[in-house]
Specification:
Length: 321
């Protein structure tokens, strides 16, 4: 079965790989391919250095834009996502923060925008929301991801975030029990100062429960090989092969479903001079390594094109030999 046929049965597709090997073009070409088949497709770029809009020759934003019939594209705006994330945090905290403390709280949250991990956490939540919520509207959701290491961290975070949220919920429950015990000691039932505070804590608990549910659902989807596929793009050169090998090991350790490899920029056998003939033979040597590496996975070889591939019309021919 070809890689395109394999992916035809997957609703969630992540495309990753070393920088500069053609991840974005491969992602966009997959999106166009499935849209041409009449499938409803959403493609999202999670790479801070967005080039998905360049691949389609369209200006994209954090709002879905129709590229062609059946295909919508989004470039997840990290700054917008971080702003929305901390706005939600501020709304939650303001429910049980002294009004006099709010200016200091806002100042702290503003500085937190640039804290290590803030962008990853916000991006993770955005990815999880698309994973969970967009499934009702699209047959395929394709993620054009950042270079390999960044992508692997994001894919493994839902499990970590779920465990972290469980810890917060456990702490909140302990505090709730202490508050209830305090209320039981209150003999003046006409006035109970904890009622309003308990409502606030209940609101905070509900926010945490919703986040836990989101991460739990996203984790389940990511680990479901029936619904999800991770495709790695590489070229037949030593460094991309080494990085792909490491990525496959990490995916296996994390029990994440690698489905196939796209080997981009392959040369044809007939070459005009000795230089290109030598390059062709070197690619063939490395291709044998890639076949060994890809044992159990579907392999797709994509030929080097004469011209740059840009726009939906050109992307239709990306996978054609």
């Amino acid at each position: 079965m070809s890689l395109l046929e394999t992916l035809r049965h997957k609703q969630i597709i992540f495309v990753g790989g070393k920088g500069g090997v053609g991840k974005t073009t491969s992602s966009a070409a997959l999106a166009v391919h499935f849209a041409e088949l009449g499938k409803r497709v959403l493609i999202l770029s999670t790479d801070p250095a967005h080039s998905l809009g360049d691949a389609f020759a369209e200006k994209l934003s954090h709002e879905p834009r129709e590229i062609m019939p059946n295909l919508h594209a989004v470039e997840l705006d990290t700054h917008h996502i971080v702003h929305e994330h901390f706005a939600q945090v501020e709304r939650t905290l303001s429910a049980y923060t002294n009004p006099d403390m709010m200016p200091k709280l806002r100042e702290f949250l503003k500085l937190s925008h640039h804290a290590p991990g803030a962008e990853e956490a916000a991006m993770l939540e955005a990815i999880c929301r698309h994973l969970v919520e967009a499934r009702q509207d699209y047959d395929h959701i394709i993620f054009d991801t950042a270079p390999t290491g960044h992508t692997l961290r994001l894919l493994s975070l839902p499990e970590m975030m779920q465990a972290w949220t469980d810890g917060l919920l456990a702490q909140q429950k302990r505090q709730t029990k202490l508050r209830e015990a305090s209320q039981n000691l209150d003999t003046q039932r006409q006035f109970n100062p904890f009622v309003k505070e308990n409502n606030r804590f209940e609101d905070a608990l509900n926010v945490l429960k919703k986040r836990r549910q989101l991460f739990s659902e996203a984790r389940e989807i990511l680990h479901d090989s029936e619904r999800t596929a991770i495709v790695l793009v590489l070229i037949a050169e030593t460094l991309p092969i080494a990085e792909t090998e490491r990525a496959l090991k990490q995916l296996k350790q994390a029990h994440l479903p690698a489905a196939g490899l796209i080997v981009n920029q392959m040369l044809a056998a007939a070459q005009p001079n000795q230089f290109w003939q030598t390059r062709y033979h070197r690619q063939q040597e490395l291709l044998s390594q890639i076949h060994t590496l890809a044992k159990g996975l579907t392999l797709c070889e994509v030929p080097l094109k004469e011209k740059d591939i840009q726009g939906a019309e050109a992307l239709k021919y990306f996978f054609i030999q």
